[in-house]
Amino acid sequence: MKKEPVCRQSILLLLMFLLSPGLQPVMAQRYPFYNLNVEDGLVQSQPRDLVQDRMGHLWIATLGGLSRYDGQNMVNYTVRDGLLSNTLSALAADRTGNIWIGSTSGLTRFNGSKFTHFIIDPHQTVANYISQIRVGEDNKIWFLAGNKLYHFNKDKPAAFPVPDTGLIITSILAEKNTLWLGGVGGKILRLNGNRWDSLTMPANVNNVVPIIYKIFKDSRHRYWFVSNAGLYTLDSGRVMLARARNQRMDMLPAMLSITEDQSGGLWVGTNNGVIRYADSIVQIFNKRSGLSDNPFFAMLTDGEGNLWMASDGQGVFRYSGVQFTVVDETTGLPSGQIMSIAADRGGRVYLGTYDAGLFVYDGGAVSPISLPMQTTPAITAMNFRNGSLWFGTRGAGLWRWNGTLFYSYLAENGKLPSNYIASIYQDRTGRLWVGCVNGVVLIDRDTFKRVAAGKVSVLDFIQLQGDSVLMATSEGLKLYDKGTVVPFPTNSPLDAAEAQCFTLKGDELWTGTSDNGIIVYNLRTGKSFIVNRSNGLQSDFIYNIITDDNGNVWAGTGFGIHRISMNAQGQPSVFFYGKGHGMKGMESNHNAVLKMRDGSIWFGTTHGALHYRPDSKILEPQPISVILQSVKLVGDQSIDSAWYRNTDPWYHVPYGLRLPFKKNNISFTFRAISLGNNEQIRYRYRIEGLDAPWSDWSTTNTVTFSALPPGNYVFHVQSIAWGSNKAPKELRYPFEIITPFHKTNLFRLLILAGCILLGISIQYLANLRRQRRQKLLEQLRREEQSKVRQRTAEDFHDEVGNRLTRINVLTNVLRSKMPVTTPETERIIEKIQENAAQLYSGTRDILWSLKPSNDNLFQVIHRIRDFGGELFQDTNIQFTFYGTDEKWKDYRLPMDISRNLIMIFKEALNNCLKYSGATEVRLEAYLRPDRALQLILTDNGVGFDPQYVKKGHGIDNMNVRAARIHGRLYIDSRKDKGTILNLTFRMPRDYFTLKRGEENMVKE
Q: Other C-beta atoms within 10 Å of 840: how many?
């Protein structure tokens, strides 16, 4: 339902141009305007302003809310979503992405997530009516509220003073250093720097109070003033009425809005349609042109060059160029179902319809041709030959019209195999081939000849070489050659297809089918390829096909018209024409295609005839940007906010996404923002981080990746308009699948370290166990040795000691019983006693060392001390000893060490007695913390020179014994200075153990 603003002042301004003259059309041609209305999702049918944001969305302010259009879908906003009012009046988009929305209740800023409202005056309704918003080149916001000028100062709206306080301001133009204001009465104010000046529109001949609705600067830096009194421009500092060679500009309806197309033409929205002003020529577009007779309050040229026009009550119209014009019911054709098309040499076009008969289109006018039939049949095929129009019907046979008379050819007269005509074809020699439902007729001059093709339906013909004509029949392809019809096998997919229509392009036979698109067969090489839905067509049902003068192949299909060309790689490139180009009839018809002598092509559809002019230009779609509409996890309703940094305000896409490794099935939905013909948009994608190439170009805009391994990724999407040579737009979306700890390098390093540590531990435990076993065996061996030593000492003492004692006793008995002893005898007896005593003394040392109880360090040291005490007891040498500790009893020494240690010092002490001539001998013992035992023997004797000492002193033996116990023996002796003997050795670790039970030794 239409809705009017509630502001009385705006109503007054609207009434002033509603009373202006109506627009008189000068052309009766329908253009391809594409309409968006409530049926397409527009929130309300009365748009008031248009703006395009930096991403390419079209924003539409209506009297029922706000709509955002991305080229395919609408998103609507009302007061329920946060708008201040549904009655909107103005729009603007700043360079930071904010959308500024003017309404009858104030100003709103929308950043995609939040609506921020600014009320100018809460006590005056009129003061809050926002009629216009402009963004300066410095991104400064200017707006009109209650026809007063405001700007934003420190993020707050503030009134901006103007020199004419009584001026009702109706328009703004904000440049970098200049501000333009237009108002009621045709007054114009200009602020240049800090200086104001003024201009005034000339008086209007119609006595209309001029109101400037828009101030516009075109690409050539010319200023235009759009008003209810006409279109004015600034010429040499004066405001002048624009001049046109075919129209007085001040006699046109009130002008409300303006924009500029890519060729520099001005499009002006009026109170009654739209005009285009270029090269001083006015061209009118209204309902008869395919547009609307309604007022157009806003005009916009988008980033692709499309023109958008906001019509009061009929939504928004888009115009993208004029390659197609339409002949349909709006241009005088009673029926839009065009079944067949033909043309004469004069360029008159004949249109055969499904239910309204035959018509001729000439000079932009449609005229009927009265047929001599009681009922009007469907005209299924036509051909113009030798000044006569031949046309076939459905059930009424074949007819010929010479411009005056009609001639009928029927099956009843024997001329045709059937009255149902499927196709008519004229070969290069001028013969007509007529395909019927159950046979073929060849018309050569005025002679009808049946062709022996069988009772088949023939849908199309095409002449090959010489006399050969190929036929598309209900039984497959058949070839007429020299009067004979034979099958035409190709050993290609064409043999199994249902052929409908033909065209030739060099050696290539292009065949339209009803089930597999277009099959291209090379007559020379026998190779073939297919063009169908898989590589660009929108439908696989091909009704008609033709080749243009540029070598492109055109196909009328079950959904739109397609132009097919071959790219540099030899692959087919398909360009689609559909609703986006203003086509109402998307389905074509059989036999409804015709190429004119000027290269233009006519197509028949179910909603009129389309006339394609190759010299005309249309705007090809070019994506403004590629946006990510959603990122979802497969199987999850939403993405946890802890997994991303922030979200996009418009589509709420998460950014800084870091997903747990189990959330690795991710789906992306993306879209190229193009406001043109979206059927041409293609996408390809890849993920940087996977070893995968770009996908093939396709229309698919959703992709799911499953089981992504952990890592850093960048999702890439590229978009192009199919057939365009421009570089694609690209989207990059980085995200991460978090590597689980058990898959990180640190974890692997820890596992490796753990394995190494485990191996070391196992080896250590094995070694420890082996050492414990060895120690246990050593302990058992020592225990056994101790027992053996104890028994040996006891046996040796009992046996050897007793025997030596007996020898000594027997020697004394022998001496007593001998009556006379000689010196020699006495010497021998004394030697026997001396050796027995020495042997006994040596035996005591052996017995002492064999006893296990004497293995401790304390006993060994004291054994040496006792030996020295006994040795020097009856001499004049003073022997002293220092050292030992009761704790040394807890330290054990191996028997070989204790034995060698005792023997070293017995030898040394004997040397002191025999050779030193000393009066004092001192022995000191120290046990250092590092298990080193140090024994120092010092005398004050005469000393000796170690280099010349005799071997009999036993020094070599002492060195050998010191080496056995891995000790170091130092002898420091100087003549008349005495001698110092220093023995240091480190006791073995296994024996350097507290003797508090044998368990301690085993455990260590």
A: 16
Residue 386 and residue 401 in contact, taking contact as beta carbons nearer than 8 Å: no
pLDDT tops 80 at residue 844: no
What are the backbone angles phi and psi of residue 419, rounded to the nearest 5°? Answer: -85, 0
Give the tens place of pLDDT for each residue, 252-307.
999 999 999 999 999 999 999 999 999 999 999 998 888 999 999 999 999 999 99
Q: What count of residues does the chain have? A: 1004
What are the tokens at 139?
A: 């991104």
Please tell me what DSSP assigns to residue 113: S
Q: Is 586 helix (H, G, I), strand (E, B) or coil?
A: coil
Query: Does the structure show a pLDDT above 90 at 123?
Result: no
Tens digit of pLDDT for each residue in 862-886? 888 888 888 888 888 999 998 878 8
331: left (phi over 0), alpha (psi -120 to 50) or beta: alpha
- Strand 296-301 and strand 572-577: the pairing is unpaired
Q: What angle do CA 388, 391, 396 make, to 5 degrees?
A: 130
> CA–CA separation, 492 vs 142, rounded Å?
68
Instruction: Work out the number of other CB atoms within 10 angstroms of the CB of residue 993.
Output: 19
State how far the Cα of 88 lies from the Cα of 131, in Å rounded to an integer. 9
Please enumerate in sequence order all residues whose Cβ is within 8 A of that of 332, keeping only pairs 6 or more positions apart, or say none: 365, 366
Asked if residue 360 lies in contact with residue 353, where contact means CB atoms within 8 angstroms, the answer is: no
Contact 631, 666 (CB under 8 A): yes
Tokens matching residue 643: 């997994």
**Strand pairing of 654-655 and 518-522?**
unpaired
Whether residue 21 has pLDDT greater than 60:
no
- Look up the CATH architecture of domain 856-997: 2-Layer Sandwich (3.30)
CB of 359 closer than 8 Å to CB of 609: no
| Local structure of residue 254 (DSSP, 8 states) | P
- The amino acid at residue 888 is W
CA atoms lying within 13 Å on the CB side of residue 96 = 11
Q: Transcribe 633-664 into DSSP letters.
A: ETT-SS--GGG-SEE-TTT--EESEEE-TT--
Residue closest to 1003 by CA, chosen among 987, 988, 990, 984: 990
**pLDDT of the residue at 842:** 61
At the fourth CATH level, which superfamily is domain 8-322?
YVTN repeat-like/Quinoprotein amine dehydrogenase (2.130.10.10)
State whether residue 509 is helix, strand or coil.
Answer: strand
Question: Which residue bears the tokens 């290539």?
Answer: 508
Other Cβ atoms within 10 Å of 415 Cβ, number = 17
Q: From the centroid of its chain, how far is CA 752?
A: 36
To the nearest 10 degrees (0 to 180), the angle between helices 895-911 and 955-964 is: 160
Q: Letter for the amino acid at 650?
A: W
* Strands across the sheet containing 324-327: 324-327, 608-612, 601-605, 588-595
pLDDT digits (tens, 9 = 90+) for 568-594: 888 888 888 877 666 777 899 999 999
* DSSP H/E element including 914: none
* 473 class by beta-carbon count within 10 Å (0-12 exposed, 13-18 middle, 19+ buried): buried
Lookup: tokens for 935: 């024994």
* Degrees, nearest 5: CA angle 226-192-250: 15
CA geometry: angle at 404 spanning 402 and 408, to 5°?
Answer: 60
pLDDT, mean of residues 73-87: 96
R_g of the chain computed on alpha carbons: 59
Task: Please indicate whether residue 992 or residue 416 has the higher confidence score (pLDDT).
Answer: 416
Give residue 979's region: left, alpha or beta (phi > 0; psi -120 to 50). beta
For residues 923 and 967, the answer to whether their CB atoms sit within 8 Å is no
Q: Lowest-pLDDT range, 459-463, 890-894, 971-975?
A: 890-894
Maximum Cα–Cα distance across the chain: 196
CATH architecture, range 625-737: Sandwich (2.60)
From the list 67, 45, 47, 49, the residue with the least C-alpha distance to 57 is 67
Using the predicted structure, report yes or no on whether residue 933 has a pLDDT greater than 50. Answer: yes
